[in-house]
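Severity: low
Component: inverse-folding endpoint
Summary: output formatting inconsistent between runs
Steps to reproduce: submit the following structure tokens with default settings.
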């Protein structure tokens, strides 16, 4: 049933790079083959439910600016169904393959968990029918364990075991729904898994709770036959002062400590990487190096604001460096590129919602095309390979394989009178080389 929200807007088509209007994909040609794979299959773009259909345009100093029909007062489930109608209309207009959601995005919270679960399952029934008709698939689902006041001191890390149990029950339903809808992943988004002061915090106890909670999810995943990937999204300081999932390195250390590094991967957000003091490409490269890369939330920050502004990604050079790391690591498997981004609160019209996704999809596609061209050109990788070539010689490979002791190395330096000289890292050349492609 047409809702009228997108009246007058045509489905978005590929129009080519020479087009002079931005309503149309100029670079996102989903069937274009790049490095042996279709562009759609490389990027696996997903529309996120919360920012696109739930955020009303508020900020700390002002109220709602969007005032969508499904946000108005009325029967909450009727509004949820209207929101689903609008969402799938947009999915069809955009022609993108995936979407993502939190449980509280798609259905209202009830007076009890049983009522909340019934609401979520009722909308999941709606989704099943719409997904069959549209072909849009679910990249991942997750549970909102941060908005309700019961979670003000965390969910898995809460000092109250009854809150821990409630959160576990909520995740069970969200994972069941994700499994039923054929989700490729399930994300644990630790919105309040951290602490504000050590004066009232037992840090080791909370880490143990978080480790057990994650293990419970993994155990249940296997019991129900969910074949998707369990993901954790690193976040540095949002909203608690000290987040236990600060960045990729912190998450990996946590997973290793609790024996979960083979079961859980990371969903890396560009905005969170920046807030953690890293570049996006650093977090991607480290996740690949540690074997825990899973998926990405694609957005950007306003670098003057110093906060997580969740803007649509439009910076092609940044995106090229990011997708170069993704391609170098072998690309996505179950993961993909989730538009974890929201309109600016002055962008009021329905066409703004479409245009934001179109413009960002094009920028992302341009970034991947540039990254693929860098890889095909080969000079960046060849320079890096040459820089480490000495380690391929047998006498040096023996060091890393454990065949040489500290005494052996000291004897070698003395015997061969080694006086190593610095070699240029050629950073400016490499940065200039990148600029040939972006």
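Observed output (run 2 of 3):
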């Amino acid at each position: 049933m047409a809702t009228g929200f997108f009246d007058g807007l045509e489905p978005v088509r590929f129009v080519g790079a020479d087009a002079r209007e931005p309503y149309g994909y100029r670079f996102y040609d989903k069937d274009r083959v790049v490095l042996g794979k279709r562009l759609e299959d490389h990027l696996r773009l997903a529309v996120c439910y919360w920012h696109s259909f739930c955020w009303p345009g508020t900020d700390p100093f002002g109220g709602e600016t969007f005032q969508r029909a499904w946000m108005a007062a009325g029967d909450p489930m009727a509004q949820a169904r209207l929101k689903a109608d609008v969402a799938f209309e947009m999915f069809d207009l955009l022609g993108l393959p995936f979407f993502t959601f939190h449980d509280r995005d798609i259905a209202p919270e009830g007076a009890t968990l049983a009522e909340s679960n019934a609401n979520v399952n009722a909308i999941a029934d709606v989704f099943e029918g719409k997904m069959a008709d549209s072909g849009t698939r679910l990249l991942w689902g997750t549970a909102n364990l941060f908005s309700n006041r019961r979670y003000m001191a965390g969910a898995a890390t809460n000092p109250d075991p009854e809150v821990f149990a409630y959160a576990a029950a909520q995740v069970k339903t969200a994972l069941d729904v994700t499994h039923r809808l054929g989700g490729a992943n399930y994300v644990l988004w630790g919105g309040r898994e951290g602490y504000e002061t050590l004066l009232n915090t037992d840090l080791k106890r909370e880490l143990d709770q978080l480790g057990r909670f994650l293990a419970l999810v993994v155990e249940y995943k296997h019991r129900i036959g969910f074949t998707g990937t369990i993901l954790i999204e690193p976040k540095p300081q949002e909203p608690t002062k000290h987040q236990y999932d600060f960045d990729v390195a912190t998450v990996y250390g946590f997973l290793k400590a609790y024996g979960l590094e083979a079961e859980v991967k990371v969903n890396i957000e560009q905005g969170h990487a920046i807030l953690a003091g890293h570049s996006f490409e650093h977090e991607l490269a480290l996740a690949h190096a540690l074997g825990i890369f899973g998926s990405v939330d694609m957005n950007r920050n306003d670098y003057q604001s110093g906060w997580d502004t969740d803007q649509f990604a439009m910076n092609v050079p940044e995106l090229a460096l990011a997708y170069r790391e993704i391609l170098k690591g072998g690309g996505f498997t179950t993961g993909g590129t989730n538009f974890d981004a929201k309109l600016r609160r002055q962008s009021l019209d329905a066409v703004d919602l479409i245009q934001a996704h179109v413009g960002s999809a094009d920028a992302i596609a341009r970034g991947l095309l540039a990254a693929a061209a860098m890889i095909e050109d080969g000079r960046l990788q060849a320079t890096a390979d040459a820089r480490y070539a000495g380690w391929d010689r047998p006498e040096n490979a023996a060091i890393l394989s454990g065949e040489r002791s500290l005494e052996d190395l000291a004897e070698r330096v003395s015997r061969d009178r080694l006086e190593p000289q610095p070699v240029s890292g050629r950073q400016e050349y490499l940065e200039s080389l990148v600029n040939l492609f972006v």
